Every structure is written in structure tokens, then in C-alpha cells.
Sequence to fold (585 residues):
Amino acid sequence: MEILVCVKRVPDTAENEFELNSEGNDLDRDDLVYSVNEWDNYAVEEAIQIVDKVGGNVTVVTVGDDESEEVLRREMAMGANNGVLLSDDAFEGSDCRSIAAILKAEVESGAYDLIMTGAQADDGAAEVGGMLAAMLDMPYASLVNEIEIRDGGKIKAGREIEGGNQEMNEIELPCVLSIQTGINEPRYVGIRGIRKVAKVEIPTKSASDLGIEENSVGEKGSKVKRLDYFVPDLGEGAEMLEGSTDEIIEKLIEKLKSKGGLG
Amino acid sequence: MARIFAYIPHKEGAAEDVAYEYITAAAKIDPNAQVTAIVTGHGDALDKAAGEMTAYFKEVIKIGGEELAYPNAEVIRKALVNILPADAVFMGPHNTFGMDLAPGLSVKLDSPSVSDVVDIEGMDGSTLKVVREVLGGQFSTHVTCDAANGAVITIRPGAFEPAESGSAGGEVVDKSGDAGDLTAKRRFLEVLEAEIGEVDITKSDVLVSVGRGIEEEENIEIAQELAEAMGAVVSCSRPIVDAHWLEKSRQVGTSGQTVKPKVYMAMGISGSFQHMGGIKGKPFIVAVNKNPKAPIFQVADVGIVEDILEFMPELAEKVKEL
Ligand SMILES: Cc1cc2nc3c(=O)[nH]c(=O)nc-3n(C[C@H](O)[C@H](O)[C@H](O)COP(=O)(O)OP(=O)(O)OC[C@H]3O[C@@H](n4cnc5c(N)ncnc54)[C@H](O)[C@@H]3O)c2cc1C
Ligand SMILES: Nc1ncnc2c1ncn2[C@@H]1O[C@H](COP(=O)(O)O)[C@@H](O)[C@H]1O
Fold:
């Protein structure tokens, strides 16, 4: 089975205290720590486990800049066989639709049985996988939390739905699945693993390599535009308790008592 | 004038809350918009949901058929593509169904797509301007899209006020005949219900809920000690369950349990909408987080900027002394 997993390099929400830049139209990106989108690690782990069972190859692909190579290497250290970087100035400013269009070109340059994305990335869009599937005219299932490869070019896939219930589907291959966290336990990647793949060559493909018309993607080709970033003002917000830890606890206990929080 | 079509999700004929929230959202796009509800399904459930919607929408399109008995997004998408006009502004819910449907629908309709919309600024010419959140709710952004050829947007359940009274006196239009070929390469098999765990967090008045801020499995004990001192039960956010540190039945949120405690202690939880979506009945929310900008402070009643690994044991000590 040939599996393609789409991965994205995102600012790490656990490692950063985000600030806006002075114009207020973007994050201050100077010292941000980036990592692989959390959902994508689950997708790569799942792909590796499937290939371990039924044979084949896992390829990881990302649309990004030179620095995105590091996330491909990380996923290759996990066990992905190949990495491909799709990079071009013309890709900058792409909305989800443009990202999907770029990925589509890569899918069509290979012969993949299964394509995976994460359920969502840093923008919480949850769109790229479903768009890619529709562009490829392949069936799609989102929020997949279980995959069983069946005979006859079919899979059985569980989708996580509200309340933690699971919706079971039978899907024909090739298909696109977006993967939900919790489907597996992504393996740990140590420094040694990263070192092993440090010198592996990762091909980079540009718009013209992919046969993509420059104006059809990126800033020019995207109909959805982000204007700014701002801190939401949801009314009052919490009453912040301040002082020494002892003082805070004293105030908190008084409040908890009056709200029925202490037995 | 925008032509808006709102997809009504329902369970056995009972419309989900978002059905009433679309009306407020649509009015924010264009107060004079013509808003049509679309209901899909089969048999009595379909008729019940469509009938209910006539109180809120002037026009209710129903699309019925055995293939539509279960809401399989791949099948529904095909029907919608055949029924929606080219300039339709389509609204769906940003939930597990909407995430399945909307991206592909927008490609097939060749309209731009904006997901998880939390507010709408309005329509200026054909430019639709909305608000959405990024980075787990840490920031909001204004987003525009050119809706000249329609648009597909999904709205966050609970983000818009529900419409109050229903006196639209609408009519049901049956478009089942226009749905076209509904065969799909994804076949629905069954729904497996979530397993019931050993503790029922929905029964507790006080929850000590831990998130990724707990950092390590061993530290769960710290929360358990605090919960014991307070006569509370330990619940958690999703990453704790994904890591198998606590069982699934303790997870609060849209893909976990819906709880209605009196007091909710959010310990090292950032406050994503999927987590907060599981907390109902307006409990008194205490948030402890070491990041003063954590989004949870926007929705909590009381906020404390501390390291939970140090704060929880001290609080437990003081509570025990009472
Ligand atoms: C379809 C779907 C359904 C989902 N359903 C759910 C659901 O039902 N329930 C759910 O919870 N999530 C759900 N999620 C996931 C959700 O989007 C978030 O990823 C998740 O809620 C984040 O959990 P968290 O707040 O514990 O972690 P994070 O967002 O990583 O936040 C951790 C917080 O802890 C703080 N912190 C770190 N260390 C410390 C410390 N020592 N002391 C104090 N504070 C500290 C950090 O500042 C941060 O604010 C769902 C996602 C999807 C896509
Ligand atoms: N720039 C990108 N390169 C490769 N894959 C991406 C990119 N952006 C998004 N994806 C994929 O699409 C998924 C969902 O992202 P989104 O639709 O942006 O929320 C991610 O988990 C990735 O698998």
C-alpha cells in the first residue's frame, strides 16, 4: 500500500507565549518555536503501522518553505520512507483551497492508495483533507479514529462523532482520510532518529515542477483572506485573583465555599 | 441580496440547536436575506424536522430517501450539489458532520469556504467578512471571502444567539426528485456507542478537571488528592485521554461527556471550544493556568496565574485543614 501523509509545520501552542507584531496584523514570529501539527503525527504513525502490516511505503509531503524540511525529517525519523517538499514563492498566502490544489498535483504525480491528513491544523480550519478528496474525486472521511484494511480494495474506518460515539464506514480505495488524535500513540522520536535521516535527500518541487499555474494558488489565487489577528474581547472575563499563593488560596476557598465547591 | 441556505442537522427529527442559531447568523450577513432551510433524511423523522422548521424559515427544502436515513456527508453532498443554486451562501454546523461535508461541498460548488465562523461582520458587495479563531482560541482573525459565486461557511455551534419565537409560517418544498444519483464510495455501517466507564463524571457537583498542563502521568495523582479533599471527582481534557492517562469516560467536551456541575476547576486547560462545549448549566468556573493569556480566562469566573503542579497540592493542604 502506497500511503501519502500531508503534514504541516505550525507554531507550537505548548512552547510559545504568543504576541502580536507591532502592526497587529500577524503574530510576532521572530522567536516562535515550531513543530509538526499534533494531528499529523497521529496520521504518520497510523500510516507506518498500516505499512508494517500490509507492506508498502509511507511518503510525507508538506507545502511550505525551506524550514519546513525539518518537519519532514522528523516524520521520516518516525519511520516514513520518503519526504517531498512543495515550495515556491507563488504558494505564499495560500488559503486551504490553494493548499489542497497544490497537494492534488503531488498526489497525481504518484500512485497512492491512501492519502491522510490531520483533522485540523493551527487555524482550526479542518478543510484541506475534504477539499483534496473532492478535487481528486475520491471518497473522504474526516475525524477517523480507526482503520482496518480489508480485502478487495476497501477499508473499514471509524469516525469519531459527538459524545465520543464512533461511526463505522466502509470506504473504497483510493480515498482520503483526516485523522483524529487518539487513534494510536505516536512513537517517540529521539535525537538519534533525527540524526539518521539528517542527510537523506528531500526533493523540492516548485509550481512549474507540479504543473501548477502560478496565479491559481497563493495570494493571487486564494479567495479567502485573513486580514489581521486580534485578541478576542469576550466581555468581562475572569476575576483574576492576585497576591501571594497563600492569599490567593484564601480568597479562592471563600469563593468555593459560597458556590458549593467544598463538599 | 444574498440567498442563504441553512443545513438543519437533526436526530430522529429533533433539530439540533444550531438550527435556530443560523437565523441570527444569516441576519448578520444580510438582514433582508432570503433564508431557506434544507433538511435531509427519511420517513417520519424527515417530516418532523421539516415541519418544525416551517415555524422559523419561510421556505424549507426537504430531500428524502432511504440513502439519506443516516447523515452520510458524502451522500448528502451529492444531493446538495444538484439542488443549490450557483450563488448560494450555504451554512452548515462546524461539528463532526460539518467538517465531513463542507470542504468537499465548496470544491464541488466551486465556492470559497470559511469554517468555524464565530461572528459575522456582514456583506459588502460580494465580500463577506467574518470572524474566526486560530491557535486554539488564543487569537481571533477577520477573514474575508469573495462570495460572488456563493460561499460555504460553517458556524460554530453556540456562537450565535438562537432565534426566539417561531412564526415564519413557512412551507415545505419537496426536492427529493432533484437529488440525482446518490451512490457513494463510502457506505455507512453502524454507530458504536461510547463505552461507559467506572466513574460517572456527569453526576458530580464539583469537578477537578486536568488538561495538558498536568505534564506527566504521575502528576494525575496530585489532582486526585485535591479532588478527594474537595469531595470532587477528577475529569479531564482530551489530550489526557489520548495519552491514556485517564479513561475516556472522564473526558469533558464535544467528543466526550457533557457535564453540569456547580463548580468546575479547570487545571492547566487552555479552553478550546470543543472542551468548553461539554460544560453546561453555567457552573462557577475556576481556571488555573500559568499562561496569563490562556483563552480560558475569557470564560472563567475566577482566574489564577500559577503552576498547577505547585498550586494544587497547596490548595489541597489548606482545604484539608478546614
Ligand atoms: C472534532 C474535535 C473534537 C474535540 N473534542 C474535544 C473534547 O471533547 N474535549 C477536549 O478537551 N478537547 C477536544 N478536542 C481537542 C481540543 O481542540 C483541544 O486540542 C484540547 O481541548 C486541548 O486540551 P488542553 O486544554 O488540555 O491542552 P492545551 O491546549 O495544550 O492547553 C494546556 C494549557 O495548560 C497550560 N499549562 C501548561 N503547563 C502548566 C502548568 N504547569 N501549570 C498551569 N498551567 C499549565 C498552558 O498554558 C495551556 O493553556 C477536540 C478536537 C477536535 C478537532
Ligand atoms: N501547508 C500544508 N502542507 C501539507 N499539508 C497541509 C498543509 N496545511 C494543511 N495540511 C493538511 O491538512 C490538515 C488539516 O489542516 P487545515 O485544513 O488547515 O486545518 C493538516 O493536518 C495537514 O495534514
